[in-house]
Amino acid sequence: MTIAFSKPFIIGKELFYIAQSVIRGRLSGDAYYSRQCEQWLQTYHGCQRALLTHSCTAALEMSAILCDIQAGDEVIMPSFTFVSTANAFVLRGAVPVFVDIRPDTLNLDETQLQTAITPKTKAIVAVHYAGVACEMNYIMQLAQQRQLYVIEDAAQAILSDYQDKKLGAIGHLGCLSFHETKNVISGEGGALLINDEKLIERAEIIREKGTNRSQFFRGEIDKYTWVDIGSSYLPSELVAAFLYAQLEHAEKIITTRSQICKLYYQLLEPLQQRGHLKLPQQIGNGHIFYIITQSLQQRSELIAFLKQRDINAVFHYVPLHNSPAGQRYSRTVGQLPITLQTSDTLLRLPLYYEMQPEEIKAVVEALFAFYGE
Fold first, then answer.
1. Residues 239, 177 within the same domain
2. Could you tell me if 238 and 284 lie in one domain?
3. Residue 238 in this model has a pLDDT that exceeds 90
4. Is residue 117 part of a domain?
5. What confidence score (pLDDT) does residue 19 get?
6. Does 313 fall in a domain?
């Protein structure tokens, strides 16, 4: 039995909706299923406006433009994140300022923000790792005091909550991912959640290659033209059709994945009690289940041990501040010890919607065998 790290899946009417989009005669973006997805996202997240994008990377790049990021501006973010979080702002000429993460949530350590802020600071990017919320009240209050934008990188956090608010709908802007490794999938895909009404009109323009095409289609103007910078950030209607079928079952997907995480935790807790490894302190929305090993060497040996048993477990981010591009384009606040330690010791276990109990049991038994239990 080979156990993959992740698997794409079909849960409802994905293929039917794709066929329907062809029958409707419109495969380019911003058609029927795109609008259905956007309405769903607005309803479930409580945001002012949701715009589908072809990736979360695209949503982050749009955020950088909407926040008017200029050359020399500084944007604070964790180093323990995906490269797109930084790239979106580097493309505008900004300097990512990396801060350390908290050991309990693996999110940026909000207590370091005051030290990181300078007169050049323009925005804070709150990355909700594994669907677990950053301390958004503190971040938003600080941002308001310092007149900073807050962008939520909620790529992993669809339908996760923070004090009865959905992640992605708290900051000025929120960015979601529907990549095939996420909870709700469309192969590639993303969305920009806009929570500041003043940014909606420009967001539509940026997304449509810098034109006011959206206003034209709504009949608000008699022709459209180039009015601002922008790019082609729309997904295909085929992608939106697949995504809408997934969104119809989003709560079921997240419940199922969360149950898998809880089962992992229950079965692996004896290994934590005996000091072999550490388990997550919060499950989030069931996007990731990870363990923290005792060392980089132990993690490497464990990955090899599992691979011999056809179990695919993977490490996660290499710290951006230590990467060649990170050293060229960014600066750090402090030595980021938690980031470095986490990067060396975190191991993600297989997790997917259709994962069967016998597969979970096989992973757990392999871990017990590795630790001689």
1. yes
2. no
3. yes
4. yes
5. 98
6. yes
N-term to C-term CA, the chain: 22
* Confidence label for 373 from pLDDT (cuts 50, 70 and 90): confident
Residues 6+ apart with CB under 8 A from 324: none
Which pLDDT value is given to residue 80?
98
Tell whether 206 and 275 lie within a shared domain.
no
The pLDDT, as a whole number, for residue 212 is 93
Instruction: Count CA atoms within 13 Å of residue 183 on its CB side.
Output: 30
Return the pLDDT at 222.
Answer: 87
Q: Based on the fold, state whether residues 332 and 348 are members of the same structural domain.
A: yes
pLDDT tens for each residue of 80-100: 999 999 999 999 999 999 999
Q: What is the pTM of this model?
A: 0.96
| Overall domain count for the chain | 2
Q: For every residue of the chain, which 3-state class applies, written as one string? A: CCECCCCCCCCCCHHHHHHHHHHCCCCCCCCHHHHHHHHHHHHHHCCCEEEEECCHHHHHHHHHHHCCCCCCCEEEEECCCCHHHHHHHHCCCCEEEEECECCCCCCECHHHHHHHCCCCEEEEEEECHHHCCCCHHHHHHHHHHHCCEEEEECCCCCCCEECCEECCCCCCEEEEECCCCCCCCCCCCEEEEECCHHHHHHHHHHHECCECHHHHHCCCCCCCCECCCCCECCCCHHHHHHHHHHHCCHHHHHHHHHHHHHHHHHHHHHHHHCCCCECCCCCCCCCCCEEECCCHHHHHHHHHHHHHCCECCECCCCCHHHCHHHHHHCEECCCCHHHHHHHHHEEECCCCCCCCHHHHHHHHHHHHHHCCC
